[in-house]
Each structure stands twice: as C-alpha cells, then as structure tokens.
Amino acid sequence: MQLVINNLCKTYPGGVKALDNITMTIPKGMFGLLGPNGAGKSTLMRTLATLQTADSGSAKLGDIDVLKQHDEVRRVLGYLPQEFGVYPRTSAVALLTHLAALKGVGDGVRDRKAVVEQLLERVNLTHVRHKAVSTYSGGMRQRFGIAQALLGDPKLLIVDEPTAGLDPGERNRFYNLLSEVGESIIVILSTHIVEDCKELCTNMAIIHLGQLLYHGVPEQAENSMSGKVWEKAMSKVELSALDPKLKILSSKLIAGRPVVRIFSEWDPGQGFHPVAPNLEDVFFVHLKAG
Ligand code: ADP
C-alpha cells in the first residue's frame, strides 16, 4: 500500500497558502517531511489524518480516498499530534485500555488487556505502566503517544514534530522505536530537524511556504551536491566583510569561531575548501532557491 498525493491545495481564510499544489507518492517505510516552521507540515499531516479539509487535489491510501472516506481512513490510521493531553493521575495501562475501548480494539476485556500489555512492552514502558502518564518525561510521553497511535494496527502512522524537546538519549530511543514501526507500515514524520530525516528516513520531502521543493532519497540528495559545497573557518570581522555574491548555506560557530559553508558550482577561491555535502546543506540550498 502507498499514499499517493496529487495537486493538494489549501489556502486559509486569511489568505495564507499553506499547501500549494503538493504532489508526491509515499511508500511503505519511514518518510520524512522536512520544513521550517510555517512550511505547511501540520496542515498536510492534519489533512491526511482527516482532521481538516483541503480546497482541491486528492490523496489516496491504496483504494481509500483520504479526503472523502474519513471513516475508512480512520480505521487504518494512527496519529500522534504535536501536543496531546493526558488525564492527570491516570496510569499508562488505564489510559491505553480506555483508548483501546474507545477505538473498539480487542474482542473483550481480556483480549484488550493483552493488546495493551503488548503495546506497552513494544514501546518499552512496561516498568512504568502503573505510573501516571502526566508524570512521564518527554521521551516516555512520546513513546506512550506511539503506543496509543498503534492501537488497532494502523497501516499509516502520522507523527507531527515528535522529537521536539527530547534530550539526545530520549530522541535515540524514540528513533529506534519509530524505525522498527516503519519496517512494516507507512510512517510519515514531520520535522524541522534535519537530523531526524538523516537518521531515520528512507524517503523524504522538503516543503517551504506550502511548496514541495524536493522529494527523494536523502543520500541521493546529498550526492547530487557533491563537489559544490565549500567551507571556511574565519574571524568574525572576515565574516561581516564576506563577498555578498557568495551563496551562503550556513554560518555556525565551532569552538567560538565562525565556519561558513557556501554553495558554488566552481572553486570560489578566497580560502574555501571543498567538503562533503550533508542533508542540512541540501535543506538550505532548497530553502534559499525556493
Ligand atoms: P508547520 O506545521 O510547517 O509549522 P502549518 O501547517 O502549521 O506549518 O502552517 C502553515 C501556514 O499556515 C503558516 O503560515 C501558518 O501561520 C498558517 N496557518 C496554519 N493554521 C492556520 C489557521 N487555522 N488559520 C490561518 N492560518 C493558518
């Protein structure tokens, strides 16, 4: 099963074009939707999750018309929104059991109990299953979020900016969990963190101002820029006097000293040396051209 999106458009009442003719196909596996804040990621995620409408275009998940057959989509969809509320003082077991009942998961109480236990094991929360979810750390909460999204064995899992606010250890555990889920179903991960795509995703898209700027394989995107990324460490004075014709991709402080990366088809001279492109370079090249 794959998700085929064609010419999807959405303009908000205020006039913001949040989706501007988005066309792409999303296969099984981890798919990264990368874009800065305001790019249109949540609008796309929410539209695919049947929580809001598009103005025109289509989205089909296998035979299901995502924009019209909402009930059918919801039966095969798992969704982890950016923010999800939890009841205070309710344990993970109790909350997940409640959500399972709401979703009609399991034939009876015993069956449901087994499903809940399996899911909590899968997201590695068995040892804290009787603690209130409201007391969980950010990473544990997100793993609980995945458990609730996986109720009912979805074919499509949508996670909106899931790693924001997680510390590196938590982020790693979360990556491992997601990539395991991505082995058998379509997982769409929206993020503004380039690292998320690089570590996890077999396919990705870059969107900005509602437009699709790139769609493909992260590694190929990097390779396509081979020989065109150049770097130089310089003083802050040099940085402020940099040739304005240079296409600057990024300027970062490394050990307190600015390191500038630029895009150039040929040797820019001026002390720049060639470096291997990374996904962040790809992201910035597309944002600046877009
Ligand atoms: P992202 O998730 O990439 O940050 P969003 O989809 O939330 O992007 O937003 C895309 C654009 O649409 C932004 O300019 C945002 O301000 C605007 N927007 C989002 N939701 C609404 C809304 N309900 N009404 C009007 N404008 C909105």
Average pLDDT across residues? 93
Bound molecules: adenosine-5'-diphosphate
**Sheet with most strands:** 6 strands, mixed
Poorly predicted ranges (pLDDT <50, ≥5 residues)? Answer: none
- Listing every helix as H and every strand as E from the N terminus to the C terminus, the arrangement reads EEEHEEHEHHHEHEHEEHEHEEEH
The number of E-state strands comes to 14
The 3D shape can be described as: globular
Number of helices: 10
Helix content: 25-40%
Structural class: alpha/beta
Description:
By secondary structure, this protein is an alpha/beta fold. It is 33% helix and 28% strand. It has helices at residues 41-48, 70-75, 92-103, 109-122, 138-149, 168-181, 194-200, 218-223, 236-240, 279-289; strands at residues 3-11, 17-26, 29-34, 56-61, 64-65, 77-80, 156-160, 186-191, 203-208, 211-216, 229-233, 247-254, 257-263, 273-274. The strands form three sheets. It has a six-stranded mixed beta sheet, sandwiched between helices. A four-stranded antiparallel beta sheet has the order 2-1-4-5. The radius of gyration is 22 Å and the shape is globular. The mean pLDDT is 93. The structure holds adenosine-5'-diphosphate. The site of adenosine-5'-diphosphate has 12 residues, from helix 1. Residues 12, 14, 16, 18, 35, 37-43 line the site of adenosine-5'-diphosphate.
